[in-house]
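Repro case for the chain-ordering regression, as requested:
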Amino acid sequence: MNELNNEKLIELYEIMLKIRKYEERIGEIYYEEKKPFDIAKGPIPGELHLSSGQESSAAGLCIHLKKEDAVIGTHRAHNFAIAKGVDLKRMTAEIFGKSTGLSNGKGGHMHLFDPSVNFSCSGIVGASFPQALGVGIASKFENKDYIAIAVGGDGAANQGTFAESLNLAALWSLPVIFLIENNGWAISVAKNKSTAGNICDRAKAYGIPAECIDGENVIDVYKSSKTAIDRARRGFGPTVLEIKVSRLRGHFEGDPQIYRSQEDFDIAKSKDPVLKFESYLLKNNILNHQQMQAIAEKVDSIINEAIEFARKSDYPSPNEALENVFYGG
Amino acid sequence: MEVNMSRKIEMYKAIAEGISQVMENDDKVFIMGEDIGLYGGIFGATTGLLSKFGSERVKDTPISESAFIGSAVGAASKGFRPIVELMFVDFFGVAMDQIYNHIAKIHYMSNGNLKMPITILTAIGGNYSDAAQHSQNLYSLFSHTPGLKIVVPSNSYDAKGLVISSIEDDNPVIFFFHKGLMGLNWMTLIEESIQEVPESKYTIPLGKANIVKKGEDITFISISRMVYECLNAAKELDIEGISAEVIDLRTLVPLDTDTILNSVRKTGRVIIVDEDYQNFSMSSEIVALISENLGLSLKTNPKRIAYPNTPVPYSKVLEKFLLPNKEKIKQTAKNLIGG
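-- result from build under test --
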């Protein structure tokens, strides 16, 4: 079913392009009405962490998933939300704080919840790992083959929750994939100044298979993810996948990135997974320029529709802020 | 069934029985924690569950509170009703992110699209020289966080009914049991905490206080072990001609404001007795509630007898000096009424 045929490759490309174009558009809109820069102003207030450059980790993995599989994302989660199939209109409306959003504007960009496709994310670094264990426990209880993906950055690998969760996942042989999106930066601190050894080696210490993949090639992500997901579904327990990705934008929008050298930017750009994949598809005659243009137009139109939907939607009534603290009032 | 009504059991057995009866009815309920299996929980709250339900539904965990308490979130998102035990409330620090940023808030952040029917059991209380990191109460700290229900029973009858309600509630509930009330054979016991407990399954609604003694002159408001200090003070005051009403709140969230206000409206005098730290606390909240609603109609200012904002010391004499007790309550009541 998930054979990597041309159709699948084109599907992968479309997801990646959707993520990239979405993030770039949201990034533009973010600065509307924000000059001089004021984080609280504009149609998208608050912090915004965009995932440009991290398309391959989300697309290459999520393309294998079923609706019942859970993805628990990070603060930089638009890539996984899109790849997991979260409704783009409702997600965008949520990011705009509108009543038609996933959570009526109560969650916002760092707290997207779409139970219909089992997607959630969190603003707390390293919080996804324990939660994924619980989905794994539920799957085993129910004798089903759904699995959980806990996404964390390289920074999250330094949280205690990572060690605790690796131990428990291995001990109970839970169907969980720990996906470390290693973009080399924990906000402003480079990975080599914060992280001892290799993240993958930590998995091996718990007897968990691990693979370190270069995310510039989505096909590598696709293949390694497939192996890990098959293992989990068949009851062979967790896997750690460390995917080296490039953070093409700041930690958050408005980040002056004074800590980052031009060389680092250049390297990141040279590893752009979307451009790399485009070259691959062209070179192997899987898509031509015209076909790519058609896909881009299709994606643009989906994004435009989502943004239009969000802009035209109403804000929630202020007093709705008091609702849903407790179930049943 | 009538015959069984005379059965008196300790609070730890009542809690375990309540959990067991919910687990029998609902296969979505399971329990995780440190030493909750063969050991039955350090304070006995899971006694007998392992042999009855097996190690899949009664899971001993590693000392990884963030991991197993956080895992309750994922299991709840898939329709389960996990119970987790945090051995001592004092250990919340290592798992608090999952409790207050996730378990408490996901229902709200998802606009009600996700439920978190999670019960956290935890032990509270001192008075046995376990010092600063194993003697705290801290229910006020959790009551401060929106989205958590807070249950603090004082006796075995309440504990069974309330633990069943907690597990069956569709919200996250923290169930605080006081070590000194559990009925353990290795700790000084308050005999009155062992009450008649029906063998059948029953519930006590969350948010309903219990007036454990009627009175006319003054109201004592309390929870957990301090209820007994209030009751003992009230009994002695009766002899001296002072009639005190004693309220056991049973739950802090929801708070039974009607019972509190009706009683204080009647007596015009109130003392809040609390084993948790005084500042920014249960006692503060209740004084605020009374002041905002009854204010100048009171006969005297409201008073608090709570644990001073001091870490819990080790030495017996030091700890006892700081704990609220019957004598402090009696003296304060007499001062209020006399003056």
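Ordering looks correct now. The CA atoms of residues 164 and 216 of chain B lie 34 Å apart.
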